[in-house]
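Amino Acid Chain and Its Fold in Token Form
===========================================
What this section holds: a protein sequence and its matching fold, both as plain text.
Structure line: whole-number tokens from a learned vocabulary of local backbone shapes, matched to residues.
Purpose: to set a sequence beside its fold so the mapping can be learned.
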Amino acid sequence: MTATPARHTRMSDLPASFWWLWAAELVTWIGRFVVPFMTIFLTKHVGLTAGEAGVVVSTYGIGVVLSSLVGGILADRLGRKTVLAWSLILSVAVLVAIPSVQGSLVTAAFLFVYGLFNGAAGPVIITMIGDIVPAAHRRTAYNYNYWAINLGWAVGPMLAGYLADSNFSLLFYGQALLLVASLVIVLLRVPETRTSITEGSSDVGPLSSSLEDVSAPPLRAGKGITAVLRDRVFVTFTLVMFLYSVVYNQSTTSLPLIMTAQGFASSSYGHLLTLNGLLLCLLQIPSARILGRWSRERVTAAAIALTAVGVGLQSVAGSMTVYFLTVAIWTLGELGSHAQAQSISADLARRELRGRYQGVYSLNFNLATVVGPVVGGFALDHLGARGLWIIAAGVCLVVAVILTLTSGARNQRVASLAEDDEPTPLPQDGDPAEDDVMPVEDSAEDDEPIVTPLACEVAGLTDPEPQPDWTRTAREQGASR
């Protein structure tokens, strides 16, 4: 029997609820002012060393790590929208209080509390996308979500740089205002996507018998977060991406310190971040047409290897021209790695534990916000900028090799889970909304079975006519910074 190749994912294939969630993500990331500029504030205005500033900023990351784990569990139990809304409300309350505090210890404490409230939002949004978007369109949906992050970073850093040069307090108030706008969108337009587990299933759901037939380690039953931590395929992928995230974190912690030491203004660093966001926004859609011809695994590994080149060249950067070049190179690496890896993690997750899975996966970036500033600050104090960037480039190369060697187990796991993966129906007045969830079957023609790019990829097959992910996107990337 000849199967018809899958058509492109169109914007209309993605539910209306996804686009409202996308808008809330965009507004949030436009206002990501505070954390990227905290190291500059602590060194220039408080008088801390690079290492001390890194320790203070890392307290924010500790809060994020804790909230991402707890937030994932609460999202599975209490509801995605409830957790997301309270995350935004409490984050605003802490942000408006930070400018009035004094002393590094008190600042560290408030940053920890801010991270504790703010960190839950990211994994909850990723979970909601997995709930409402069919698997065949999920790669494109995560690309669009990443694009929202990039659009925000194309505007936010440049604005934040000028605000920081004027008055650092404006960063906190400005970010709080934009979080309120995002909260309004969530409350009015985004539905709850969590549904009850189907009758007859346990809290963690039954295990698929198909998992026993693949060489990748089978999933084990368990309750709470332990069920996720026993998934060796998923945990291995998360740990490897953590190493990459530690390197990526240096772009928002060590890079501004190095540029400040070289005599550049805060606005110059903001221009680099704006270049990063603009390039991602402009190149994401056309690059998706090309990158869609290859598997996500190959694209991710190659992109991280390219990141090593850009990071390594920063060891000789001393002018804005060279910095623009290096940022452009590692931006291309970010272009091919972040959204691809996010969609892989979503497809590795069991549906009934999706919130917990995304909470654990978010650790690869959130834990890096704890480790990254400390490692970067220590390296700057003892090895200098050149030593930091050379080591960072080497770590990226190691990550690319490990991802390549372990890709087979992930492909097998995704294939075994894809059969039972269906989008969550979103109830409205007792009935699912047809414009909110569009089943994959609607795209079939002449009753012939569809072979989606995801199915071909995980089975190791080549699509007869490669269909790239043309509508896609781009940084919540989360993650993202």
